[in-house]
Write a structure and sequence with these properties.
This is Pyridoxamine 5'-phosphate oxidase family protein. The chain contains 8 helices and 7 strands; from the N terminus they run αααββββαββαβααα. The chain is α+β, with helices and mostly antiparallel strands.
Length: 208
Amino acid sequence: MQLDPDYAVSDIDTLERLYGAPAAASVTKEVGYVHPQYRKFIEAAPFVLLATSGSEEMDLSPRGDSAGFVRIHDANTLLLPDRRGNNRIDSLRNILHDPRVALLFLIPGIGETLRVVGKASIHLDPDLLTTFCVDGKPPRSVLVIKVESVFFQCSRAVLRSRLWDPSMHVARDDLPSPGKILAELSDGEIDGLKYDADLPERLKSTMY
């Protein structure tokens, strides 16, 4: 199917006529701080998506740990530890260029998600890092996020996707493994079989 550019929306007026005005509840639910009711969502969430924007690229990065790993410092400040990863530091590079961030909190079994928008800075205070130690290992850094907007997202997307429905789980063997992907992308320079064989122990030993 060929896409007709004449049908692309290019102005706000057309967009607003298409979708109409938001319902009153959609406006009321947004506040500029961590409301006590929203605090419960953040404290229950073991997984969050972090969106950032840099000079040349955008990034959406998954972050996860025990529920409540994103700490509420006060009603206007969140603390997000940056654990071990692949060292690409895409999100951190972007934050140095543009501090604006967006967070999407997900809670297993819950349809509603929580969205937070704010500005982030990267902190290395040893005393702060120590408070986030797991198994004696501190994070590399902590993002201090100044909250500007908080609101919940209704459950339609989660319900439509059946995200938490076990019957929808995909068998791991149905998708290419990390090693197979790397072997193909590197034209065989990376030994995919060895990469996959070593991966479980590597993940276990480098979790924190």
